[in-house]
């Protein structure tokens, strides 16, 4: 059962790059609970043979990477609902059922059915093993053990743990039919030499061979505490992206000779939202701090577009990022400066960091940028009134915050998040989408998966922007177009009435700590919609590798 507990998060990690962490987790906890019981009951009532199932289970485990590779190529046809179900059953539940079966077989020597009765002798140990051992161990491995280990070393990546689990099943088997295990040797050779998903010394070349028809190239990749992180480049259009599982953390159009000749001076971001966030500097307040004396806090690094620009303006910038791999790739492939006089990067959980920062009373920021979308969904814990209240406490009196939220404007969850932001900042906010609505929509209507940037003042007053100067653009043509939020792209707060807040309703329509589970269904729906959006951004083959 310990191997089953490990197989659960490893399976989810290996299929998340193709379908996203949220979609593969739908009903996963309930399913693994049921499959352990199924395997146990299967053996207790219907297992009449004396030979061990473990050698056959080990053989399946050896071939699991190859099975996944084969099924991944049908990800677009399977979609974000059937795909995770099929792959979850193939790569996770088959192993867990077999382990539950083997556990029941192993304790038959205790003859519990004879001592406790035919029903209690099966039900009692099954429930105790499932809820008292398997589920707690699986929780610890999934939430704490694996993320911590994988952020510290590449040696125990999910794709490397798969063959290790097969070896462990082989070692635990009381019977060792070596002719059966020898059938696993070709699977190991295939994994080491021909499987693009294994992170061995030869497999990067396999990935780029398979990507060649799409004109994409994999530059680097690793597994870390937030998932599968990789850097890819489109050789046709000359732009580079940073990927986390089935989402993009950002990207840049590269400064080619042709683009330089047409007037480009710098790499340009592929998403306008990152430059819209920089408009916090443009919000007019009663007392403006000079850039050279200002301090900024950025929650969520991505490729570093926003913190790089703030540092370029001379603002000392502290960036809080959870994933060390994201920071490493941002430095290596996207020009993010290392810790220096212009700023620092703190590798920490933003919730705990903000709580400690407020408690210590150290540091006040003139600007805060909040941009934490990853893995196909927004982490709702970073949009509760408690966390946002901590961020407000870290602002100077004349400080300004910009918050990016990605979601569907037609969904109640989006309305709840926007209202939470508005309530925390006393209605001193304005929100803007990052692109024009479709022609079928009113400019301020709901509908469609978009990025919404909310600007809020800490002090009373309306959010107004000064006109940017050439210095604000930092030589970027894209900033000339997108830095200043467009009035026609403004989004009305759903729970305001005639521009003012509805006191009785909106005060209670906020996201509080502990409410995250109440919105699980909408987070899952949003992740499914985002999956479909991403399949139109990059070719399916890129996501499948």
UniProtKB/TrEMBL annotation:
Pfam families: Spermine_synth
UniProt name for this protein: S-adenosyl-L-methionine-dependent methyltransferase
GO molecular function: methyltransferase activity
UniProt key word Transmembrane helix: yes
Alphabetized UniProt keyword annotations: Membrane, Methyltransferase, Polyamine biosynthesis, Transferase, Transmembrane, Transmembrane helix
InterPro entries: SAM-dependent_MTases_sf
Statement: the UniProt record of this protein carries the keyword Electron transport: no
Spans through the membrane: 18-41, 53-72, 84-104, 116-134
Domain of life: Eukaryota
Species, as recorded: Teratosphaeria nubilosa
Gene Ontology biological process terms in this record: methylation; polyamine biosynthetic process
């Amino acid at each position: 059962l310990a191997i089953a507990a490990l197989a659960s998060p490893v399976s989810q990690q290996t299929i998340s790059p193709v379908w996203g962490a949220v979609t593969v987790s739908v009903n996963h906890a309930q399913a693994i609970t049921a499959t352990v019981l199924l395997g146990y009951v299967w053996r207790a009532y219907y297992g009449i043979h004396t030979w061990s199932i473990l050698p056959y289970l080990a053989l399946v485990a050896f071939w699991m990477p190859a099975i996944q590779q084969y099924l991944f190529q049908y990800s677009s046809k399977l979609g974000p609902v059937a795909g995770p179900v099929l792959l979850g059953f193939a790569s996770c539940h088959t192993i867990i059922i077999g382990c539950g079966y083997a556990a029941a077989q192993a304790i038959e020597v205790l003859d519990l059915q004879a001592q406790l009765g035919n029903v209690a002798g099966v039900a009692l140990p099954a429930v105790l093993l499932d809820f008292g051992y398997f589920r707690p161990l699986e929780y610890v491995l999934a939430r704490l053990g694996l993320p911590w280990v994988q952020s510290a070393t590449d040696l125990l990546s999910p794709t490397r743990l798969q063959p290790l689990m097969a070896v462990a099943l082989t070692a635990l088997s009381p019977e060792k039919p070596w002719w059966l295990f020898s059938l696993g040797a070709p699977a190991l050779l295939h994994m080491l030499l021909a499987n693009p998903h294994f992170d061995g010394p030869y497999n990067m070349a396999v990935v780029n061979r398979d990507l060649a028809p799409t004109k994409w190239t994999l530059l680097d990749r690793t597994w870390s505490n937030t998932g599968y992180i990789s850097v890819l480049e489109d050789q046709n259009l000359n732009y580079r992206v940073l990927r986390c599982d089935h989402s993009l953390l950002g990207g840049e159009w590269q400064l080619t000779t042709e683009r330089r000749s047409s007037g480009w001076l710098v790499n340009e971001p592929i998403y306008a939202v990152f430059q819209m966030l920089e408009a916090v500097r443009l919000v007019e307040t009663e007392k403006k701090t000079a850039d050279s004396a200002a301090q900024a806090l950025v929650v969520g690094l991505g490729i570093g577009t926003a913190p790089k620009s703030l540092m370029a303006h001379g603002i000392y910038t502290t960036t809080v990022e959870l994933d060390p791999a994201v920071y490493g790739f941002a430095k290596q492939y996207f020009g993010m400066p290392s810790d220096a006089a212009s700023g620092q990067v703190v590798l920490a959980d933003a919730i705990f960091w903000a709580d400690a920062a407020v408690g210590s009373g150290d540091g006040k920021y003139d600007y805060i940028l909040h941009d934490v979308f990853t893995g196909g969904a927004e982490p709702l814990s970073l949009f509760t009134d408690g966390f946002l209240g901590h961020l407000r406490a870290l602002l100077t009196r004349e400080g300004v915050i910009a918050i990016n939220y990605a979601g569907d404007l037609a969904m109640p969850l989006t309305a709840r998040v926007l209202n939470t932001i508005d309530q925390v900042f006393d209605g001193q906010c304005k929100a803007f989408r990052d692109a024009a609505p479709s022609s079928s929509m009113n400019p301020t209507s709901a509908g469609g998966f978009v990025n919404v940037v909310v600007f809020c003042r800490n002090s009373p007053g309306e959010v107004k922007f000064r006109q940017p100067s050439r210095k604000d653009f930092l030589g970027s043509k894209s900033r000339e177009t997108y830095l200043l939020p467009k009035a026609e792209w403004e989004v009305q707060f759903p729970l305001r009435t005639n521009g003012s807040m509805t006191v009785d309703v909106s005060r209670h329509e906020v996201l509080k700590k502990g409410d995250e589970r109440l919105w699980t269904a909408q987070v899952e729906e949003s992740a499914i919609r985002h999956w479909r959006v991403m399949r139109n951004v990059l070719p399916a083959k890129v996501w499948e590798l």
